[in-house]
Design brief:
Order of helices and strands: EHEHHEEHEHEEEEHHEHE
Number of strands: 11
Oligomer: single chain
CATH architecture: 3-Layer(aba) Sandwich
Number of helices: 8
Largest sheet: 9 strands, mixed
Mean pLDDT: 91
Helix content: 25-40%
CATH superfamily: Acetylglutamate kinase-like
CATH class: Alpha Beta
Length: 243
């Protein structure tokens, strides 16, 4: 799982990691790539074994997005519920990968489906974390018209996480889109209000506002970097902190 530092000390004892659904598809662009899921699971497992309490929220964009349904003429709420179901599929895939390497994991969902997942109950979620189980919270907020970014912000605040880690395809926040502008400059640290005023598309406005109102720091980092999750949790400056 990579080299572990001697006497490691995590900067954050309890974290919530937000992954996009696309992160699980890798270069395939659609669906779930088992090799990618297994790689992420190994990184998450390593951090968990070092004593960090971990929660995860995974999007569903690799399978279905609510706004895709709207573009196809579907009712927006119906499309959003379909997107929420996609997050459950991704969460079960991640749970399977983690448990295959011996990491106790619970999938919790905002929409009741007891055959495959526990209902999300805040106190139960915190109890799982205290027992060093990884929890994967799916189903968004349980309501349409909210993104998984907002769900991640809400759950991070609810469970008392010390930081919300936003794993992306780029190594932080830039002053313009680095995929379109090769001269874009990375920002090491930025305030919530500046993110809102400059309309930087890191997370949706509701998610940023929720973190701002509750003092929840956000770190945006590149998931594809070697041991990226461990490095950011143990204090290495590899992304952008929003606080």
């Amino acid at each position: 799982m990579g080299q572990v530092p001697e006497n490691p000390e995590a900067r954050y004892g309890r974290v919530l990691i937000k992954l996009s659904g696309e992160a699980l598809s890798g270069q395939d662009k659609f669906g779930i790539n088992p090799n990618v899921v297994q790689r992420i699971a190994r990184e998450v497992a390593e951090v968990s074994q070092l004593g960090v309490e971990l929660a995860m929220v995974i999007g569903g964009g690799n399978i279905f997005r609510g706004r895709t349904g709207k573009a196809l003429g579907m009712d927006r709420a119906t499309g959003d519920y379909m997107g929420m179901l996609a997050t459950v599929i991704n969460s079960l895939a991640m749970q399977d990968a983690l448990e295959k390497i011996g990491i106790p994991t619970r999938v919790m969902t905002a929409m009741e489906m007891r055959a495959v997942a526990e209902p999300y109950i805040r106190r139960r979620a915190m109890r799982h974390l205290e027992k060093k189980r990884i929890i994967i919270i799916s189903g968004g907020t349980g309501n349409p018209f909210f993104t998984t970014d907002t769900a991640a912000s809400l759950r991070a605040v609810e469970i008392g996480a010390k930081v919300l880690l936003k794993a992306t395809r780029v190594d932080g926040v830039y002053d313009s889109d680095p995929e379109k502008n090769s001269a874009a400059k990375r920002i090491d640290a930025i305030g919530y209000q500046e993110v809102i005023e400059r309309k930087l598309r890191i997370m949706d406005l509701t998610a940023i506002s929720l973190c701002m109102d509750n003092g929840m720091p956000i770190i945006v980092f590149n998931l594809s970097g070697e041991n990226a999750i461990r490095r950011v949790i143990f204090g290495e400056n590899i992304g952008t902190i929003i606080s």
